[in-house]
Amino acid sequence: MKGTLRNNVSLISVVVLFLWIKTYIIYQTSFNIEIENTLQAFILFINPLSFIMLIIGISMFFRSDKGRNRYLMFIGFLLTFLLYANVVFYRFFNDFITMPLLFQTSNFADLGNSVTEEFKWYDVFYFADLVVLAVILKVKPKFVNFHTVPKMHRRAYFLAAAAMFFLNLGLSEIERPQLLTRTFDREMLVKNIGTFNYHIYDVILQSKSSAQRALADGSELADIENYSDANYAKPNDQLFGVAKGKNLIVVSVESTQEFVINNKVNGQEITPFMNQFAKESLYFNNFYHQTGQGKTSDAEFLIENSLYPLSRGAVFFTHSGNEFNSMAERLHENGYYSNAMHANNKSFWNRDIMYKSLGYERFYEVGDYDVNEDNSVNWGMKDIPFFEQSVQHMKEMPKPFYSKLLTLTNHHPFYYDEEDKFIDEFTSKSGTLNRYFVTVRYTDEALKKFIGDLKASGLYENSVIVLYGDHYGISENHNEAMGQYLGKEVTPFVSTQLQKVPFMIHIPGVKGRVIDKVGGQVDVRPTLLHLLGIQTKDDLELGQDLLSEDHEDLAVFRDGRFVTKDYVYADNKCWDKATEQPTDKNYCVPYMEKASTELNYSDRIIYGDLLRFYDPDSAKK
Ligand code: GP9
Ligand code: MN
């Protein structure tokens, strides 16, 4: 018997090999997974293995051959079915299956109608190996060893599966730091941890949020409603409705921080256009981003809902099935055609799903743009052609419309083409910071052309145009270089002030001025809706209209830092804005509670999906 053990392959290896190879073939033939380097190619190759080894390994514990065979056939079929379901889904949606999506009945209805068209005759080949396996189990050919596996071998096998898993995870972490905590994109997840592990991860995310949701009930809302009522800042009489009926164009300006505005590098202006445009707009020079790990998507979330994003993960991913009262929805109710425009993979940040929850009527994604190698750099389509083509889409839209546009060129690592370089790089040890100025300058040029196109198309005079920076571009890893640029040390105080992002609202017929109120992205929703003449007093918002006389100077960051009129709370210290030095902590104490209450209420709304219990008609305000 010992001899036979050496000369033939174990049943386990056969099954594992079959499933592994099949999964890999499916990756290559049925999904469009972009591979940029050898490490990514290697990760893709090994990523199905750990899970398949684990689940097939369980068959070693079966006492009877019959039981084991049935188990193997069952798992083989289950995994194949899962893969095949993804293949069909991908043909239709160009995306991988997610739990919330399966539960979103409206999506499913879409799928149901034409799903039959997505089946192809040659799909039977996806199941071919199962037939071979069934034959092997039946015929028991000599080259396969059907004997029970000794305990020692079993241990070694599971150790190897675990080692494979950690090797896979380790390599993915090198390739994509924070992959699991930030959950950027399904394609990236599948590419790195593999389709099976991805589904497990997705189920964990889903069950966590379902459990929290199931435990919540409407009674939790009372405190939050009271808070939101008391916090409501009534609109400014002169400005309420000044832009009634106008289109709303909101541009999320990628990674743009406020320090570049009205500032120079090598003696040249960094944002000549925005500096000018700010003069013609309501310009908020004490406006902060409040994003967490969800970056751009967190900024979108804040602006749409006047709620904070989460402290961990991206709410666009974790709670896309929630009920929201978004700005897009409110505008749609008021006759607006609401849409988002972004020439990137539509599933990035789970936008394709989340935008539906937020009530956007249309998402102009990469497929709606003519993107090619010549008009792309860094993360994808360049801002200039993106804006050009977006204006073409706008011309065709029903009016009035609400369009949200997301730029992309000024994104880390800030790579650019020589032809798009309008100013010189900075000189410091940080290539990232050095290049940043060049790409910010490019985006500024793109904005200039965009406004020019809007004027030429006649849309300008009928539109409110809003620009906001989504989040920082230069992280604290570049403090030394940043200190060199600013000519001072980047203390926790300075670092907090660097979280200011530009925010400007251009309204036809309204003269530009600087508004120095302290606020953040959470305040955008009421500010804009009031300008368009739409009341928000019945909405559950945590932000305040920045133009209201009652607006309180406060910006709470997602990590607990905050800024008031005179103080900055950071690094557990209270900093005096005038001296830029720590002062008596008592000055910050009155705001500490408000800051944590706001974040806490926001989390409770999201984790409990409390807006499903919210009835605006019963709101008192
Ligand atoms: C990608 C864009 C950039 O679609 O939103 O993402 P970011 O990394 O800035 O969140
Ligand atoms: Mn961004």
Automatic annotation (TrEMBL):
Q: Which EC numbers characterise this protein's activity in its record? A: 2.7.8.-
Q: Which UniProt keywords apply?
A: Cell membrane, Membrane, Transferase, Transmembrane, Transmembrane helix
An example of a GO molecular function for this protein is:
transferase activity
Q: Where, subcellularly, is it found?
A: Cell membrane
Checking SUPFAM superfamilies in the record gives: Alkaline phosphatase-like (SSF53649)
Record domain Sulfatase N-terminal: where: 246-534
Give the protein name, as stated in the record: LTA synthase family protein
Residues that span the membrane, as ranges: 9-27, 39-62, 71-93, 119-137, 157-174
Q: Can you name the source organism?
A: Bacillus lumedeiriae
Membrane topology per the record?
A: Multi-pass membrane protein
Family recorded in the similarity comment: Belongs to the LTA synthase family.
